[in-house]
Amino acid sequence: MDNIKIQDLQGEQRQIAETIGLEAYLKLVKIYGGTNIYIAKIDKLLSIKRDEEIVKRFNGYNFKSLANQYRLSERAVREIINRENSRILNQQLSFFDDS
Questions:
Q1: Domain co-membership, 51 together with 31
Q2: pTM of this prediction?
Q3: Helices 63-70 and 74-95: crossing angle, nearest 10°?
Q4: Which end of the chain has fewer CB atoms < 10 Å from its terminal CB, N or C?
Q5: Which residue stretches of 33-62 are H helix?
Q6: CA gyration radius, the chain
């Protein structure tokens, strides 16, 4: 793989190598070659971070304040909190799962 250059690549493969660098591209090829990988959109990454911040700042009562701060509905904030609580509960339950 030492003799591969960016100029040897075509299309998407070349774009990826130009974007992340040839060395990183070759690592991806080595690890994920022949498989499909999903790359999230920036909006998804930002919403994950936002949701983490909402959960961190939640005090049990401040749905409206968080909704205003993050420009969401109170319902959306409640759904974020409930989703995180369910995830934590499932992790705790799986800790005790015998299977």
A1: no
A2: 0.64
A3: 110
A4: C
A5: 42-57
A6: 21
What letter does residue 4 receive in the DSSP assignment? -
Q: In which domain, by residue range, is 89 found?
A: 42-95
Cβ neighbours around 54 below 10 Å, total: 21
Q: Same domain, yes or no, for 23 and 58?
A: no
Q: What pLDDT does 98 receive?
A: 61
Taking only the tens place, the pLDDT of each residue in 12-25 is: 999 999 999 999 99
What's the first-to-final CA gap in the chain, in angstroms? 43
Distance, CA of 55 to CA of 81 (rounded, Å): 6
Triad 64, 66, 68: Cα angle to 5°: 70
Q: Are residues 31 and 61 in the same domain?
A: no
Does 16 lie in the same domain as 47? no
